[in-house]
């Protein structure tokens, strides 16, 4: 895996992003389509009751000292097993999407009402909960390579009575092509997996034939490392992508017909 950027690397990126992004409020967005999406969905962030049980779950995890043996994806691939003891509190703090990103996913899914939703990287299920709650009529297929962690997520899906989640246990390299065979089209994708630029581009190529003009793809941690940022730029330049929106932490790709290809750096949440 490429080296994760340190604090100074992220700060440098952030200063550059601030210089090249449009101010909050939507002024300067010349595309009516993107202006509307930004003002009515992306930046229309209101904390509310809809998310209360998900954030209660986060608080429970943050207080939880129980450890699980995490089996890394590399170990799954090699068939070996050493395992690493990790506390649930640590996972909630370091890998789960933060509340502002969870709410963004909720609003996007609630707005577009996608039927077939794909998530790469379930972990403890924080993003899955936001996505699944936003559209009970859609189905979320979420893939996770670590069985123990997926078990924790599944338990919460059951407690909250979310019936529209289909968890898939296995590595993306095998689960993704298998799922693609079963699904005719994919309407919404959230990629929050192994933070490897080469892999990200490979997964995108597998998913691409199932995307359509109304599909939405959200990629998390686009500035995690140099190679993730490079991969994000390549995705944004892909000829199938009409609109790419860089929100600093994550990026959104749209595939609309009849819209001139454009890229936007927009501010959202703490950025
Ligand atoms: C950043 S976490 C996902 C966090 C989750 N979206 C949330 O908000 O709670 C990434 C997860 O992807 C899983 N993962 C990484 N690479 C994988 C791969 N190649 N195949 C399957 N799972 C993978 C990891 O085990 C980890 O649990």
Would you kindly provide a written description of the structure presented here, covering whatever features stand out?
The chain has one domain (7-50, 97-265): Vaccinia Virus protein VP39 (Rossmann fold, 3-Layer(aba) Sandwich), CATH 3.40.50.150. The protein is 44% helix and 16% strand. It contains eleven helices and ten strands. The protein has helices at 7-20, 32-42, 52-62, 73-78, 88-94, 99-112, 126-134, 147-159, 172-182, 197-207, 226-237; strands at residues 67-70, 84-87, 116-120, 139-144, 165-169, 188-191, 216-219, 243-246, 251-254, 262-265. An eight-stranded mixed β-sheet has the order 5-4-3-6-7-9-8-10, sandwiched between helices. Strands 1-2 form a two-stranded antiparallel sheet. Strand 4 (139-144), helix 8 (147-159) and strand 5 form a beta-alpha-beta unit. Helix 3 packs across helix 5 (88-94). The longest helix is centred in the first third of the chain and has 14 residues, at 7-20. It is globular, with a radius of gyration of 18 Å. The protein starts with 6 loop residues before the first helix and ends in a 6-residue tail after the last strand. The structure holds S-adenosylmethionine.
Give a topology summary:
Blueprint: H1 7-20, H2 32-42, H3 52-62, E1 67-70, H4 73-78, E2 84-87, H5 88-94, H6 99-112, E3 116-120, H7 126-134, E4 139-144, H8 147-159, E5 165-169, H9 172-182, E6 188-191, H10 197-207, E7 216-219, H11 226-237, E8 243-246, E9 251-254, E10 262-265
Parallel strand pairs: 3-4, 3-6, 4-5, 6-7, 8-10
Antiparallel strand pairs: 1-2, 7-9, 8-9
S-adenosylmethionine binds at residues 73, 95-97, 121, 123-127, 143-146, 149, 171-172, 192-194.
């Amino acid at each position: 895996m490429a080296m994760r950027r340190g604090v100074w690397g992220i700060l440098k990126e952030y200063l550059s992003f601030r210089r090249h992004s449009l101010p909050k409020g939507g002024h300067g967005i010349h595309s009516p389509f993107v202006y509307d999406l930004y003002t009515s969905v992306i930046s229309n962030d209101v904390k509310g009751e809809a998310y209360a049980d998900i954030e209660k779950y986060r608080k429970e995890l943050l207080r939880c000292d129980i450890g699980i043996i995490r089996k890394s994806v590399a170990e799954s691939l090699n068939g070996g097993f050493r395992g690493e003891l990790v506390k649930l509190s640590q996972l909630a703090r370091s890998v789960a999407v933060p509340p502002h990103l969870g709410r963004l996913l909720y609003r996007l899914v609630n707005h577009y009402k996608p039927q077939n939703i794909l998530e790469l990287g379930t972990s403890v299920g924080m993003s899955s909960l936001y996505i699944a709650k936003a559209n009970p009529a859609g189905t979320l297929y979420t893939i996770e390579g670590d069985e123990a962690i997926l078990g924790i997520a599944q338990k919460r899906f059951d407690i909250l009575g979310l019936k529209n989640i289909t968890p898939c246990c296995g590595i993306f390299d095998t689960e993704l092509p298998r799922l693609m065979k079963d699904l005719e089209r994919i309407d919404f994708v959230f990629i929050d997996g192994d933070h490897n630029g080469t892999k990200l581009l490979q997964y995108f190529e597998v998913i691409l034939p199932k995307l359509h003009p109304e599909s939405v793809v959200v990629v998390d941690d686009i500035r995690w490392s140099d190679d993730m940022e490079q991969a994000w730029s390549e995705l944004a330049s892909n000829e199938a992508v009409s609109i790419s929106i860089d929100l600093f932490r994550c990026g959104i790709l749209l595939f609309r017909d009849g819209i001139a290809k454009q890229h936007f750096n927009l501010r959202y949440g703490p950025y």
